[in-house]
Design goal:
This protein has seven helices and 17 strands. By secondary structure, the chain is α/β, with parallel strands linked by helices. It has two domains: about 35-65 and about 165-335, Vaccinia Virus protein VP39 (Rossmann fold); about 70-155, no CATH class. Strands 1-16-17-15-14-11-12-13 form an eight-stranded mixed sheet, sandwiched between helices. The chain has a three-stranded antiparallel sheet with strand order 2-7-8, covered by helices on one side. The protein has a two-stranded antiparallel ribbon with strand order 3-6. The longest helix has 15 residues, at about 35-50. The radius of gyration is 21 Å and the shape is globular.
Length: about 325
Amino acid sequence: MSVTSATPSPASAAAPRCALYGRCGGCQLQDLPYEDQLALKTEEVRRLYPGVDVESCVASPAIYGYRSKLTPHFPRPRADRPPAIGFLEAGRRITLDVPACPIATPAVNARLAELRAEVLGRWASYRRGATLLVREASSGVTVDPRAVITERVGELALEFLAGDFFQNNPFLLPTLVAHVADAAAGSGARFLVDAYCGSGLLGLSAAPRFERVLGVEVSESAVRWARANAARNGRGNCDFLAADASAVFDAVPFAGADAVVIVDPPRKGCGDAFLDQLARFAPRAVVYVSCNPETQARDVARLGAAGYACARVVPFDMFPQTRHVEAVATLSLRAG
């Protein structure tokens, strides 16, 4: 979700830590004290959910130096000078040179400096632009998107490819994951379906509190990683399957009345076909995780028309200094 940063008064303004703040499009709120950032994000989520209990935004333990992944890029080099390596300027399709990023972890910034030197040392050899990767995990820092990395979240050790999607704030992630597991278990369901399961983080984290967990993904490679992660972490009650997007719940071997579904889609939210299938499956509860509360609220409204009540939304500040916020909405099927 994009929140709108109000111009801070002189009394409430904060000093941005980045010399490029205002030019780089990555951060929008560095001039607001952190408590004001949290209040702003809380109010924006509440605006999307009138009549729903939206709790105060959960703060990140680290508000700078938290981001464990950067994907800087550079355009096709010109013959007369090396390219800028960084991110788009605010409001412009021009790449801004970014030597370091204060919201990235120190290890990511250190490797970014080395990677920039490597690229600039042979920039004339590039015939087109490129997107780079710098990712830190429990296993170390890599710039190879095909490298297998290990990330620890709570008691879990998860392996996946460095270029795959994974939450980029490891400081707040355990709190978010614990909240999702609590919300799912609070439904009283015996079974859990983890839709959009990726490498298995949410389903595996909640697994000890359910008789059986089934993760569903359209990506066969993600399913392979999730199965391997289940075995690696001793989650014998978990299985994962690759399902066609048009028939996500067809292979689920238990009734919706006995199940809770975790939904964690990309920023665009859930498609109409998925929401129709979810409504037909009719789980007793849905825990909807989203990095875009605007599309989340749209989908929650549609589920409301299908008989679900949203009683609680909790924002999490997974992206301090930026306009973005994560939110978890918990819905239950109305009686009758």
